[in-house]
Amino acid sequence: MDIFGLLPAFGGFAMTLLAFVAALSIIVFVHEYGHYIVGRWSGIGADVFSVGFGPVLIARVDRRGTRWQIAALPFGGYVKFKGDSDAASGKDGGPMANFLMSIFVFGAVMMASGVASERVAVGEINTLPPEYGSELRAGDEILAIEGQPIPDYDAFYAYARDAQAMPSKTYTIRRDGREMQVQGPFPLLPLVASVQPRSAAFAAGIRPGDVILSVEGAPVWAFHQLQEAVRNAEPGTPLALEVWRAGERAQLLLAPKMVDLPKDDGGWETRPLIGITADTFFSPETVTPGPLAAIGLGAERTWNVVTASLSGMWHMITGAISSCNLSGPVGIAQASGAMASQGLDSFIWFIAVLSTAVGLLNLFPIPVLDGGHLVFFAYEAVAGRPPPDRAFRILMAVGLTLVLSLKSGGRTMQQIHDEYRGLSLMVDLNWDWVLWCVAIGAALGTLAWILPA
User: Fold this and answer.
1) Residue 216 a catalytic site member
2) What is the domain range of residue 255?
């Protein structure tokens, strides 16, 4: 297989690898720093703090005697505490550091970019094809569409979901203190807000800002028309799209892919998608949240990632969704490169999502992961003695083998979709291997309990 054919087209192998290494190194550093700082607070010094494995590229020793180093293979890291016989991350704190990083990053991004104000007001009009004429201006407050009141964004998006698609709609607005009626495009257009990595749209070269004008020759004025066309398409059958980009028009062919998606009721459904999110014809008026509000919003986003991931795992256990949607490290590398291609804010947001996923994964009771260490600590607290050395080594060897096997195991996709930002991210989580690790870890843990010391 030609590996270059698997990589995002925007920058080739080097750019994808650079984005992947940058994302992974940041997450590993934060995770290991969590172990390091908890150990230091507990009065335990560290001999080595390493980001990466193998030959050391850069190193320095601080005043506490800890050697901080960057190694040649940036696919993990470790902290070697004083008195440890091996280099491992044996102190608690890594997953919590990942969660705190996600909360901080989510909150910081929302403080920097702002969040939509409570009133439905126009920040600025997006660049659109000439077919989409608009009489709205920046600062206009939308009060109603075709006579239907629009008190908030929930009502705005509900109207966009259910209303009849038309080239133009009548908007009742408030401008400079006066109410008036003006004409504008359909509220939610086939205007691309973001493109999912490794999707049909990404492979076809669709970019944020593109406007899809027609599907199979039929004009589309609303995003729900595009959704309907994709939903009714035969899986694997290419669709002909006319796309507008910065004044130029092009014809593209792409075949929707079957994807497992979370539903509002907590369930999952499988349906064809091309892999884009839609945007309104205007950018909303925004307000800047305060630090405490931003932390709260960041915590909410982090919790959404956790709950959606656990929901996906549960539905895979019950057979409600497939476990064969995405590959492992190559998929994460592609996602890293794809999000970097969509801008710095998208890449930073992706790192925060991935950090949450790494923190959650490390809490599973799998030997060699942090959750496995917690199981060993719990065993020692209950039994009054550590696990027998033989059982401990067996557990660690099995756990290490299975974790390393993640790269070739089955796959599933967890989509994290944030409606405000219009950003949809895919995170590779090899949950079927996780389940096997949990089951085998539990069985071997039982053996460790009954084996003599």
Assistant:
1) no
2) 188-287
